[in-house]
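Researcher: Please predict.
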Amino acid sequence: MVRVRYAPSPTGHIHVGNARTAIFNYLYARHEAGTFLMRLDDTDLERSTEENIDSMLEDIRWLGVDWDEGYLKGGDYGPYRETERKPLYDTYIRQLLDEDKAYRCFCTKGDVEEDRRKADEEHRAYRYTGRCAHLSQTDVAARLANGDPYVVRLRIPAEDVVVHDLIRGEVTFKAEEFDDFVIARQNGIPIYNYATVVDDALMHITHIIRAEEHLSNTPRQVFIYRALGFDVPQFAHVSLILAPDHSKLSKRHGAVSVGDYRLEGYLPEALVNYLVLLGWSPKDDREFFTVDELVKEFTLEGVGKSGAVFDKRKLTWMNHMYLGRKPAADIAAILRRDFAKLYEETFGDTPEGSVLTAIDLTKGNAQVLPDLFALARNVVCQEVTIQDEKSRELVTAPEGKQVLGYLVEHYGDVPFGLGDEAMSHWVEGLRDVVPLPPKKLYHPIRVALFGAKDGPEIVKLFLALEPSVILRRLERALAL
């Protein structure tokens, strides 16, 4: 059975690249009817605070990425925090030392710096020289008795490593690239490559899906798997998410964390949909998927090797489309929860039914959630605020005066209360009685009723607003 994991370092909000990795693992597990596991790689004791862990989990849950086993849920292979697993790491360190597959290295910082300096002078890459690789048991015992500090190094065989990557194919790493690298520090804390191998092996992880920046770690991890006698899992390294200038996406390019996009008013389903399409291609040209559809369609064969450029404009367009399709009641619930202050300032004591009407009327014009406050305000408030100078010019132009004057004069002809079809027919019929091009006819009406030339359909405005409010807004615009 497929078992995959997401093992973040909980040092703050989740970067969109890490979020995509979590989503890919989640979709692959669901597609293969496997298990998705959450583990915390929290050995960065300074930054892996409980506050940061809570923040990370909030981001993951907000995205809708739920795990089957692991942190907070338990399972047969816990604990699921690296800081709680040190006895396991120590056990396997002892095994490697007893089998002479690893050794204690007592080299001082000065020793290492001297070797690095010599390598620089000889214009060659630094590799650990193996000073301590063949110390006798007597020497080791004497140094231990003396209290000399040491690290533990893995003995590396002189052989190439071929990684069979499910996305990148065969990747070969030459033997000369490796030396006997450290697997445990002087304080006994294991390094990342060693700890993650022990964790993945003992948790029976079958597929490791992660970012390509970890590809260089893979051969070292393969050496550790082999030394411990563990089966090597299958690897799949997904491309990086790139900035528009094709550099690695970072904070200097703007918002990069899931938490940032939530605060800016993006919907989780839009962000998930967009992130999945960064690096994965469906079999057709579809752009919009439900989570169930993604689960059905997602395969690693569809994941590309090339870096994917993060285009915030495309994400915003996709969010706009999702907002237009989302029920008004669901949007209102999000606004109350995530933008409580703005919600109170905008709607105050407005009846919920009126709020939902305003949201339903304007959601198709919003790019992000906070846009709805400015848009809906001109529906629920008694007075409308014209939002820009170009819109103001439309109602003050001769054509604007002509159409608004006609509406005020013939206000009694508006078919209030007769249903959608009657209102649509009346609005369409304005073309016959006010001989103006459509834009010059309808834009001034929308500005008068809504405050901007772009907004809800004219018919919907006449159906949603109170007749007395409509008349007052028309008269006020005409008075300009």
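Model: The chain has four domains: 1-71+239-325, 85-238, 326-377, 389-479.
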